[in-house]
Amino acid sequence: MSSVSSRMLHPVASEIVEQQVSLLVLGKGTVGRQLLSQVYAQQEWLERKHGVSLRVVGLVDSRHALFEEQGLIQEGLLERLAAQSPPATGPLGLRFLLNRMRELPVPVLVDCTAADGMEAHYEEAFARGIHVVGANKKPLALPWPARERLFVEARRYRRAYHYETTVGASLPVIDTLSSMVRTGDTVHRVEGALSGTLGFLSEALMRGVPLSTAVREARARGYTEPHPREDLSGLDVGRKALILARELGLTLDLEDVVLEPFVPAELLAEDSPEVFLSSLESLDTQMEARVQAYRQEGRVLRYLARIEPAAQERGQPAVRVGPVAVDSSHPAAQLQGAEAFVAFTSERHREFPLLVRGAGAGGAVTASGVLADILRIAQRVQSR
Fold first, then answer.
1. How do beta strands 339-346 and 187-193 pair?
2. pLDDT confidence of residue 16
């Protein structure tokens, strides 16, 4: 037997080629911290099993920035960040870091903030050959032309922009909907409890927990936005519903969403989180009476988003968001704690809607979704 054929029968084992991915993480809040923890915990396993080396090269908060091209070590990371002299972390400061990122292997900007104006940084990243993973809903809820510009720029520079966690934390809501649309299915209705936070509050109220107590507990668990009024205003759900509607091809803006807040609008003007939380005590008795009436009727309080593309043809709003009382047989009635769910009714799923259900809030699950989006980029690069 020739030596060539012998090698064919007995191939030499080869190691998985390691693909480095360089991460610039924006935000060290609940999601940002959880993401850092998960990245460092999974580093060795990902390198050994999948040939992916995730390297956190930069960490930026609202006042400080830390950057090391060889990678930041985990020990004392947040303390080292806090000890940095405050740089210009606005457009000029971040542009400087993005310029350094462009020279690194597979650079990815990871937005774990809820900050306004991040779309400008995304566009700067795309122009420098940097991919973007965003848990921030606000760039996707911009007026339609600004939102579309993000996708045009991503395509122009052939960069990935992943944002699965903007709607369902780690749940594959956007991916499921996108797959349905891409494969030619016609989606007639999307209905969902898109906020694990408001789901937690609704379920707590149905159990007899006072509203003010339930909101404080949700905040302590890391379910709410930094200011809980963002959740109770319904605006967070409104943005998520808008993101899904736009995935369906509806050219809507946020003002097109009919939105009813979870609490009276007059309470939402309070800027101080603590004062806002205290003001909720005035609603405890009213909310208790409301849920008691629902119990007697055999119904359950839930906060739902409903998207019906055909409603536009009837001159009606295509997207509605607000608190509703659903029958006990409704899928949302079965949710527990911070669970979220989305039901897709389509031409192919007409009789039995396609359901996605699971944990819809919390830093750990959202961070795991962000990590999954990062790994999608790594896999895409590896497959080239």
1. antiparallel
2. 58
State the number of CA atoms in the 13 A half-sphere of 77 facing the CB. Answer: 20
User: Domain 19-169+365-382: which topology?
Assistant: Rossmann fold (3.40.50)
- Break the chain into its structural domains and give their ranges: 19-169+365-382, 173-360
Q: Which distant-in-sequence residues (6+ apart) come within 8 Å of 215 by Cβ?
A: 201, 224, 228, 232, 277, 280
CATH topology of domain 173-360: Dihydrodipicolinate Reductase; domain 2 (3.30.360)
DSSP string, 113-160: ---TTHHHHHHHHHHTT-EEEE--SGGGGS-HHHHHHHHHHHHHTT--
Measure the CA–CA gap between 383 and 377, rounded to whole angstroms.
10
pLDDT on residue 362:
83
Q: Catalogue the active-site residues.
A: 240
Model's pTM, two decimal places?
Answer: 0.90
Taking the CA atoms of 373, 375, 381 and 383 in sequence, report the sign of the dihedral they define. Answer: negative
| Contact present, 242 and 250 (Cβ < 8 Å) | no
Residue 381 Cα distances to 52, 58, 71, angstroms: 10, 21, 20
Q: How far apart are the first and last CA of the chain?
A: 36
- Residues 63-93 have pLDDT tens digits of 899 999 999 999 999 999 999 876 644 544 7
Instruction: Give the Cα separation of 215 and 198 in Å (integer).
Output: 9
What residues in the chain have per-residue pLDDT under 70?
A: 1-17, 86-92
Residues linked to residue 56 through DSSP beta bridges, in sequence order: 23
Closest C-alpha among 159, 158, 120 to residue 138: 120
